[in-house]
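Step 1: inspect the first sequence and its tokens.
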Amino acid sequence: MKENIKLIECPRDALQAYYPIVSTQDKIAYYQTLLKVGFDTLDCGSFVSPKIIPQMADTEAVIKGLNCADTTTKLLTIIANERGAKNAVSFEKIHYLGYPFSVSENFQVRNTGKTIKESFPILERIVRLAQNHDKEVVVYLSMGFGNPYGDPWSPEIIMQWVEQIAALGVTIFSLSDTVGNAQVKDIEVLFSSLIAQYPDFEFGAHFHTHPKFWFEKVNAAFLAGCLRFDGTIKGRGGCPMAQDQLIGNMPTEKLISYLTTYNKLPQSFDVLAFESAYNHSHKIFI
């Protein structure tokens, strides 16, 4: 298992349900400050229908406008179908394609317009396309800790899906607490079991959480061996497709505080650059 902590900043997740629409130039200026921080990955956009997520309609223009010459941070964009994947792989700057694969039937239909049965062969083709263009796929297991729709869920279901998706060649999974209902015992069981079974894979935590509960979720995942964490500055954002009261993302500044306590903050992380990006975020989120 890789020993270095990976922090993924997700301004795409922070912005996707935010109004008013932020201009392309303002997004680029903000993302440039984030690229100086030393995050492993910047989740910076999504190639999805602008009718569904209008805030992400300019993803192509944003990618083109970013200067990635002086950063080690890799770019990730979310895609929901083959059309989006074809757009994403055409950009040399993009390293990761993030695909939301929900273990909840209801949410997969809400999020991608496809059933789970329909989505799996789409994912297979996306993985093949990514491999042919030297890209990596990150599979987000949406509703990874349960769902509000009454769809079947258990740690065993997650384990079964990881096994099936891993057979396609995927080695990076992000367990997504889409509606903020993850329980500590389930976090512990899933991360400890998956990491033990697949020691060469990356298993990340994409937590949506109420501010009161961020610590118990991060602590449970970290102590179970999780070394990959997604966050957004001030915990902004959430999933607009959940059709539920939005619960914010994991606040990046809380992750930084937690990891600093354990002396686990990545060596590449520039605290002063983060403060600058944090301050710049107030120009974006008014």
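Step 2: inspect the second sequence and its tokens, then contrast the two.
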Amino acid sequence: MKVGILAGGLGTRLAPETETKPKPMVQVGEHPILWHIMKLYSHYGFNDFSIALGYKGEVIKKYMIDYCSLSSSLTVNFKNGDFKPHAASDLSWQVDLIETGLSTNTGGRIKRLAPYMGNETFMLTWGDGISDINLQDLLDFHRSHGKLATLTAVHPPARFGHLDLDGDRIVEFSEKVQTREGWINGAFFVLEPEIFDYIEGDDTQWEKSPLENLAKDGQLMAYRYGGFWQCMDTVRDKKRLEELWDSGQAPWKVWNDQPAVAQPLPMAG
């Protein structure tokens, strides 16, 4: 099953990080957040990716091309320019890197992925959000209802400490990662190819008419997920994710570490 990842936005709220790289290449720990997202999918057996590029897409291309060669020993033939890594990467990914335009909107980027997704069910997410969601459970839910689209509904991260009050007395104070009420679009979609008919063109915003019309037609279902979810919109978000990763307690790290040849890849730029 194919996995589409939108990775073409400007990421202006993460400046100056995004002055030299697209937001999905901003690092959490020693790896770009895009790597973390792909590792999550790969843990559940989804290894075939199509990435929609836009702003500074060449940085993502270079990262993918150089990953194996820069992270292992090499033999280089200077006569013909051939090189051979001494060991394969521990990753089983196949990645399409698709140019979708600098100013194309989210719906337009999705539609430009259509030729690469196959005429079958596919997954889709953004290149700046991570979760500990069980993707197989998400897929099972999608298949159970038979509609065209499943959206993962999540509780937004809390910005402030939560207070439980009994009159003026505080009976509980807690710094919650997620709020207790309300649901928002957390991406992590499962979609049928018919959804492409809901997208007019490059200027279409996925979160507007396509999702609105899918809902009106009774074709949009919510997979309610109350576990960890965090987007990386701001420097504050990045610091929060880095703190979790550096502590060894990152909720989204559901994969097991394996002995690997690949070492952290030097970032471009």
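Step 3: confirm your contrast with the notes below.
The helical segments are 33-43, 57-70, 106-112, 114-117, 135-145, 209-216, 235-246. Residues 2-246 form a domain with the Spore Coat Polysaccharide Biosynthesis Protein SpsA; Chain A fold (CATH 3.90.550.10).
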